Structures are given as structure tokens and as C-alpha cells.
Amino acid sequence: MAMSAHPAVVLALGSLLAFAGLQPARAADAQPAGATNERTVIKMPPDMRAEFLDHMSHHMAALNDVITAVASGNFQHAAQVARDKLEVGAGKGFGRYLPIKFREMGLAMHRAAGEFATAAEAASVPPSAENWKVVSGKLGEISARCQACHATFRVE
Questions:
Q1: Which residue ranges does UniProt annotate as crossing the membrane (predicted)?
Q2: Which of 47, 73, 131, 143 would staple 3 via disulfide (CB 3.0–4.6 Å)?
Q3: Which domains can be identified in the chain, with CATH numbers?
Q4: For residue range 49-77, what is the model confidence (pLDDT) as tens digits?
């Protein structure tokens, strides 16, 4: 059975996808020339930095997959992607280089992904207007966690 998305949600999520696709790869790139970058610097060895940034890119790709699945009304797939790729999982050893505040913010994002997945899994098929509202709100919580961390920290 084909699932149809609520038109307002499709417009909002489509706008979010378009906005995300047009943003610079790093927040520092968005600053005017000569502006100072006030974010907290996290220093890492070059090999660890590259792996860490790759890991963050995988988070962005997973979030994009979740948004795409939600926009198409496929909440079950969105939940599965969030569980498989964004929920709390095995670490990769980055913690020793990260300040406590960063770790706390990261854990909050991973927990928000789990809460999103639970809400998406509980949605009816096809999703009701209330399901759209709850799932969209939970999706916004994930994105807000990402934005807050990226606005606070930068890796060197």
C-alpha cells in the first residue's frame, strides 16, 4: 500500500533537505572573511581527525536518509535507519579527545535518535496527522542537537 505524506510536512521536510544541501560543509566556511570563529577548538591527531570527520559525515548522511524516509511517509524505514546509524552504539575511541560537554551533547543526539525511532515505529500505517506531528517534532530534536554541537565546537 502506498503511503502519502501530509502536504505541509512534505513542504517543510523538502525545505529542510534543500537547506541542508545548500549549507557549507563546515560552519566556519559560512563566516564572513575576517570574522573570528568563536567555537571551542577540539585538537586531534591528524589520522584521528580524518576518521572523526568521516564519522560525522556518516551521521549527516544517515540524518538525510531519515528525513527522506519521513518525507515519503515511510516511518518504519526512517526508524530503522535511526536505530542502525544514529542511536547510541559502540564508540570508536574518539572520547579521549573530546571535552565532556561535547560527549554530553553527542549522547543527547544519539538518545534523541532513539526517541525518534520509537515514535516512528509507533506510527500507524498510513501515518495519521498526529503521527506526522509527533515524528516531525522528534526529527527536529535530532537536528537541533546536531546544530547545537556544530555551533559550539570545531575540530582541528
A1: none
A2: 73
A3: 40-155 (1.20.120)
A4: 999 999 999 999 999 999 999 999 999 99
